[in-house]
Amino acid sequence: MDAAVWTAIGLLAATSLGTLFYLGARIDGLGARIDGLAARIDGLAARIDARFDRVDAQFDRMDERFDALAARLDTHLDHHPT
């Protein structure tokens, strides 16, 4: 009877350790996939930031053009008596 109990305990321990190592490997694999996804998201964020920088530069150029037009209009209106 003792041999059967120890055999059952050994099988249970081996199964538990095997499952633990298997799940550990799976979790490591998922961690690597998550790291890869995080890198892709960081790259996307950098692309979005670059896009907003270009848009901001375009708005700055438009502001300069509007300011120049406003100055020209003010100069033109100053030549006319009110």
Task: Please describe the structure with a list of short key phrases separated by commas or semicolons.
82 residues, mainly alpha, 94% helix, 0% strand
Tell me the total number of β-strands: 0
Shape: rod-shaped
Radius of gyration: 35 Å
Helix count, DSSP H or I runs of 4 or more residues:
1
Largest sheet: none
Mean pLDDT, all residues? 92
| Share of residues in helices | over 70%
Q: Assembly state here? A: single chain
Residue share in β-strands: under 5%
Order of helices and strands: H
Low-confidence segments, given as residue ranges, are none
Structural class: mainly alpha
Task: Please write out the topology.
Layout: H1 2-78
Give your account of this protein's structure.
The chain is mainly α and about 80 residues long. It is built from 1 helix and no strands. It has one helix at about 1-80. The chain is rod-shaped, with a radius of gyration of 35 Å. The N and C termini lie far apart (about 115 Å). About 0% of the residues are buried.
Briefly say what this structure is.
94% of the residues lie in helices and 0% in strands. The protein has one helix at residues 2-78. The termini are far apart.
